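As a warm-up, study this chain.
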Amino acid sequence: MPKTGMLQAGERVQLTDRRGKKITDQLVVGGCTQTDHGIVLHDDIIGKTEGIIVVTVTSKREIQVNAGVPGHDKPKPWKAARAIGGWEFAVMRPRLADYVLSMPRGAQIMYPKDIAQVIQLGDIRAGMNVLESGAGSGAMSLNLLDAVGDAGQLTTIEMRTEFAKIAQANATLYYGEQPNWWNLLTGDFDTVAASLPEHFFDRIVLDMLDPWNRLDQAYRVIVSGGVIIAYVTTTTQMSRFCEALRQAGCWTEPEIRETLEREWKAQGLAVRPDHQMIGHTGFLIVARAMAPGFTALHKRDRATKDTVTDIDSLTDEERELRLADLELRDISDRKLRKVLQDLGGQLHQIEPCADI
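Now compare it with the structure written out below.
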């Protein structure tokens, strides 16, 4: 459950100044947070509510303030230059999205824009049993834990023990204790999934390099009608996973999505998009499991289109014979004549004797 009430030692808080700069730190009795405008004393925050304003003090006090606090006994020499206090910060508990972006990480995390799409497109709700592969630093795991709640269960398979420890620590810091509805397992997906019960999971989330190699075990453990959603970063991964879903015959036609995010600035009549945006981070591929014994319905390719054969694999003679079949940009003879006619007319305007 989200924490409310007075801010306590051990909690993480988010400090935001008037320029929008955010700093996230853990409250420690007698501790402080270094900023570009002096230091924020944690004792000025502990025992207060969210929404207060704290003012920085000169960093010359840092040695006295941090005396006896582990990790702060030896002040860094360059921090003495940041001596001016009097800068205001608003104090809030970080949202889950804020926490995810600021938490210690070992592996690259999924951005909130992609995580939100996973929850929505995967239709992940309270009380569900969800299987996740690839914990990384725990960004997706935290959101899945929130989505299923303590009435559901999240089972996460992470290959690397170090990443599993990072994800577990981040979840424990966020909740204040280790969530008891999270089953974090280490090992490769196929081996661990083989020990899981059949047709038990309502949803499967794959964040790994080769999700197309994990479909056999995924289908064994998912319920009929269950949703599988994979996050991959490259077009080649996306293509291979989609083709594997189609060839398996037991998954519906995959849906492919990419989300781009752009912030806006609005100040009076000065309304414009931000100069920076979060562009491509990854692709989301979504499909659903068919009931055993039933084959999925897929769109038939046009007979005149060959989207499989690689033209470089053909001989010169085969390539010449099949070039028209392999051409993906089809254009009818009528349209081709119309284009040539239009271009001829335009050329005639600049060169009356020109012909095409």
